[in-house]
């Protein structure tokens, strides 16, 4: 009769170190909730960031002697001015209506920001809505209306200013603008 095989126990130093490292990693991950792939998202904060926009006119109505109404698409990327992860390196896309008719001159619209994971933040904006407590942010205000993924439940206010850039080369009436924001947000 053959004897059953006995299990072999590996006790090399490398194997023991590997097991210790795996156990330590598991322990650390269980002790730090909210950390995903080395990046955590706070639940609220104030974040200064700039969106570098290119504006493309899609349709325009000319009102002779009075002005124009133009539908615009704006696309760009964001840059967090403190070097933090929140609102940094996100893609931005907005749809807007620019009205310049008689005394009325304003731009209203809506935007979506998307991060590298595909999670999104949604906002509306109005250049007539000025935050008087931040006189340097004198171009309008975004209102954060929601989000997806890690931004689900986000709300906030984003007073902004507008910095015109040099005219873009080529046809099509494209323009460029940097839009600094001073965002106060919360995820509930």
Verbal overview:
Residues 7-12 and 18-39 have low confidence and may be disordered. This protein has one domain (39-187): AOC barrel-like, CATH 2.40.480. By secondary structure, the chain is mainly beta. An 8-stranded antiparallel beta barrel has the order 3-4-5-6-7-8-9-11. A two-stranded antiparallel ribbon has the order 1-2. The protein has one helix at 13-31, and strands at 35-36, 39-40, 44-63, 67-80, 91-101, 104-114, 120-126, 140-147, 154-160, 163-164, 175-187. Helix content is 10%, strand content 52%.
Features:
8-stranded antiparallel beta barrel, mainly beta, globular, single chain
How far is the first residue's CA from the last residue's CA? 69 Å
> If helices are DSSP runs of H or I spanning 4 or more residues, what is the number of helices?
1
Please provide the count of β strands.
11
CATH level-1 class: Mainly Beta
The SSE string, one letter per element, is HEEEEEEEEEEE
CATH topology: AOC barrel-like
Average pLDDT metric: 84
**What fraction of residues sit in β-strands?**
over 45%
Radius of gyration: 25 Å
Strand arrangement within the widest β-sheet reads 3-4-5-6-7-8-9-11
Name the poorly predicted regions: 7-12, 18-39
Tell me the CATH architecture: Beta Barrel
Number of domains: 1
Question: In this structure, how is the largest beta sheet organized?
Answer: 8 strands, antiparallel, barrel
Assembly form of the protein: single chain
Helix/strand layout:
Layout: H1 13-31, E1 35-36, E2 39-40, E3 44-63, E4 67-80, E5 91-101, E6 104-114, E7 120-126, E8 140-147, E9 154-160, E10 163-164, E11 175-187
Antiparallel strand pairs: 1-2, 3-4, 3-11, 4-5, 5-6, 6-7, 7-8, 8-9, 9-11, 10-11
């Amino acid at each position: 009769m053959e004897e059953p095989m006995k299990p072999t126990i590996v006790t090399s130093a490398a194997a023991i170190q590997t097991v210790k490292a795996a156990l330590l990693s598991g322990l650390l991950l269980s002790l730090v909730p909210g950390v995903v792939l080395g990046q955590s998202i706070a639940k609220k904060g104030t974040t200064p960031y700039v969106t570098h926009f290119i504006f493309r006119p899609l349709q325009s109505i000319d009102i002779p002697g009075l002005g124009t109404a133009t539908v615009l698409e704006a696309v760009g990327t964001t840059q967090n001015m403190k070097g933090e992860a929140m609102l940094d390196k996100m893609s931005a896309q907005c749809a807007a209506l620019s009205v310049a008719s008689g005394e009325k001159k304003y731009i209203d619209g809506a935007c979506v920001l998307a991060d590298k994971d595909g999670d999104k933040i949604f906002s509306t904006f109005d250049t007539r809505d000025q935050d008087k407590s931040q006189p340097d942010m004198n171009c309008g205000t975004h209102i954060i209306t929601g989000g997806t993924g890690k931004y689900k439940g986000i709300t906030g206010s984003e007073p902004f200013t507008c910095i015109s850039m040099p005219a873009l080369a080529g046809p099509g009436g494209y323009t460029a603008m940097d839009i600094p924001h001073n965002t106060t947000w919360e995820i509930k």
